[in-house]
């Protein structure tokens, strides 16, 4: 009798375990979706309204110093404070805005979105939008050409730590520098790697500013349009500088040889 009862208990345990195991298999797995925090923190300074999350921070002083330097160089008056949206990383930005990048500017709303605690490049887009917007070669070029750090006394235009001319010369020596005719128009500029087009355009624009004045570059910005075809870009350039963009390219290439 004892043996029989023991067998019954064993069979019961086996059947119960089988039922539980089957139930576990049929339960759908729902992965936990990580939710980044909203930008609930606000810091208002003289020229910015910073929006960031509770576990983040911004470098408002460094940003303000750059701002004052840049607008004095450009000779412009800012109509309102810039809304600066700071994200923890690209995934955070994508979750809240749908865009995954290091930074982007929204000149129409005078806003900047960035994963950096301060951002010179994207703010320049807001500044120069008050003057004009030529093709992306020049629009991105001037943002890179103004990528300086006045707070630390560094007025060299840099791309990932090195001078923009360093990168342009490096690409030239490696035969990967892109002929300007291939990237002057916005659509063609965007068809190449920005790891080359950004420092290349920044070097060319910086060369023109340093050798032919910022005022001439701003005059060129005033008559340009983002969707201009290459013929119109070249005509506009000739009308401002008095020589062709092809001539300017050759001067710039010679400069890089001796950099």
Write a structural description:
The protein has a five-stranded mixed beta sheet with strand order 1-2-3-5-4, with helices on one face. The model is unreliable at 1-8 and 10-27 (pLDDT under 50). The protein is globular. It is an alpha/beta fold and 259 residues long. Helices cover 52% and strands 10% of the residues. The chain has two domains: 41-130; 150-257, no CATH class. The protein starts with a helix and ends with a helix. Strand 1 (41-44) and strand 2 (48-52) form a beta hairpin.
Fill in the keyword field for this structure.
two-stranded antiparallel sheet, 259 residues, 2 domains, single chain, 5-stranded mixed sheet, alpha/beta
Can you summarize the main beta sheet? Answer: 5 strands, mixed
| Percentage beta strand | 5-15%
What is the rounded Rg? 28 Å
Uncertain stretches: 1-8, 10-27
Spatial arrangement of strands, main beta sheet: 1-2-3-5-4
What is the mean predicted local confidence, pLDDT?
91
* Proportion of helical residues: 40-55%
Beta strands, count: 7
Helix-and-strand structural type = alpha/beta
Order of helices and strands: HEEHEHEEHHEEHHHHHH
Contiguous helical run count = 11
The shape is globular
Query: How far is the N terminus from the C terminus?
Result: 100 Å
Total domains: 2
Nutshell version of this structure?
This protein has 259 residues and is an alpha/beta fold.
Show the helix and strand layout.
Layout (H helix, E strand, L loop, with lengths): L1 H25 L14 E4 L3 E5 L7 H15 L7 E5 L3 H8 L5 E4 L4 E4 L5 H9 L7 H10 L12 E2 L2 E2 H10 L12 H4 L4 H19 L1 H10 L6 H12 L3 H13 L2
Parallel strand pairs: 2-3, 3-5
Antiparallel strand pairs: 1-2, 4-5, 6-7
């Amino acid at each position: 009798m004892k043996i029989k009862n023991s067998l019954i208990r064993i069979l019961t345990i086996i059947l119960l375990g089988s039922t539980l195991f089957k139930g576990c298999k049929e339960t759908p797995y729902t992965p936990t979706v990580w939710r980044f925090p909203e930008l609930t923190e606000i810091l208002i300074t003289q020229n910015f309204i910073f929006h960031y999350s509770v576990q983040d921070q911004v470098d408002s002083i460094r940003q303000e110093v750059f701002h004052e330097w840049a607008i004095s160089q450009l000779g412009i008056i800012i109509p309102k404070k810039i809304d600066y949206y700071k994200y923890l990383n690209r995934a955070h930005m994508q979750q809240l805005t749908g865009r995954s990048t290091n930074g982007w500017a929204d000149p129409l709303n005078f806003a900047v979105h960035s994963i950096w605690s301060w951002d010179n490049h994207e703010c320049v887009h807001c500044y120069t939008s008050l003057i004009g917007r030529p093709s992306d070669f020049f629009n991105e070029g001037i943002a890179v050409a103004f990528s300086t750090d006045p707070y630390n006394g560094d007025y060299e235009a840099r791309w990932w730590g090195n001078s923009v001319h360093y990168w342009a010369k490096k690409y030239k020596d490696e035969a990967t520098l892109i002929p300007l005719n291939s990237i002057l128009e916005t659509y063609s500029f965007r068809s190449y790697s920005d790891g080359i087009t950004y420092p290349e355009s920044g070097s060319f624009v910086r060369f023109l500013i340093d050798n032919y004045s910022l005022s001439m570059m701003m005059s060129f910005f005033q008559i340009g349009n983002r969707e201009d075809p290459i013929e119109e870009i070249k005509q506009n350039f000739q009308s401002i500088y008095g020589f062709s963009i092809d001539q300017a390219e050759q001067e710039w290439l010679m400069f890089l040889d001796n950099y």
